[in-house]
Amino acid sequence: MKIGAIEAGGTKFVCAVGNEEGNIFEKVVIPTEAPEITMPKVYDFFSDKGIEKMGVGSFGPIDINEKGGTYGQIQKTPKIDWIDFPLAGDIEEKLGIPVVVDTDVNVAALSEARWGNATDVDTCLYITVGTGIGAGAIVNGGTLTGLSHPEMGHIAVRRHEQDTFAGTCPYHKDCLEGMAAGPAIEARWGKAGVELADDPIVWEMEAYYLAQALVNYIYILSPERIIMGGGVMQQEQLFDLIRKNVVEMLNGYVSSPRLTKEHINDYIVPPGLTNEAGVKGALGLAIR
Ligand SMILES: Nc1ncnc2c1ncn2[C@@H]1O[C@H](COP(=O)(O)OP(=O)(O)OP(=O)(O)O)[C@@H](O)[C@H]1O
Ligand SMILES: [Zn+2]
């Protein structure tokens, strides 16, 4: 069976045709402009491919609750052209096939669980630290759908004692994303993260915030592995700093050998998949 997959991102839509084994045969990249411009190009690509269903991993917020009447509809995003756009509904109507949609981070988590660095566990978390901070969780093989999807980037964090930065989140100011996403680093230090590679306090502070978030996710979701990706995590020194902080902050409270100094390197890890993770995950979503 041929299956369609879309990684719907803030800058580009990656569209692919694949099969149930997760193989991708054909792929195209379409820039994200307004829906009236982007979507016809998407339909052009898929129109003669003979696909029978479609999986979509989308930027959010997006309604992923099948029980409401607005499944697959984009919500209040800073990308104003897309607010209230019925992404899943429009694809179903134009291509005449069933569509399954989830968030980009849930789909990345699914991809890592199926093909990447979490194939040996049932419950894992994927967090991206980039322009924003978002996380997706696979719990016993599936993603979490409640009111809609989790918003793990906007949790409260305790302030680092040397940090006087106000925070960048338009909704909460000094939430995790407001203190630790790429733009927060740049606003706090006056330079992009990539130019601050040799400044230890930058990464010590960054690790302090990210570790607090991971500790909260560990307490609430009990993931068997945490995968960290996104532009900011290109600073590889962050991994060891975060691991060290997580072990210290947990202070032995959760009794698992995975959470000890000896094993934490295999617990907090980079992604196993690189360029095709999003679109492969979208394929995985339709396969399930
Ligand atoms: N090597 C690097 N070191 C530190 N920061 C980096 C590095 N590369 C990118 N960044 C920061 O990461 C952010 C961009 O994130 P990313 O590359 O994940 O893109 P994105 O897809 O726009 O993010 P998002 O996943 O939030 O949509 C920018 O703020 C940038 O300064
Ligand atoms: Zn926030």
UniProtKB/TrEMBL annotation:
Its cofactor is Mg(2+). It catalyses: D-fructose + ATP = D-fructose 6-phosphate + ADP + H(+). This is fructokinase. Belongs to the ROK (NagC/XylR) family. Its EC number is 2.7.1.4. It comes from the Bacteria. Keywords: ATP-binding, Carbohydrate metabolism, Kinase, Magnesium, Metal-binding, Nucleotide-binding, Transferase, Zinc. It comes from Halobacillus andaensis. InterPro entries: ATPase_NBD (IPR043129), Carb_Metab_Reg_Kinase/Isom (IPR051804), ROK (IPR000600), ROK_cs (IPR049874). GO terms for molecular function: ATP binding; fructokinase activity; metal ion binding.
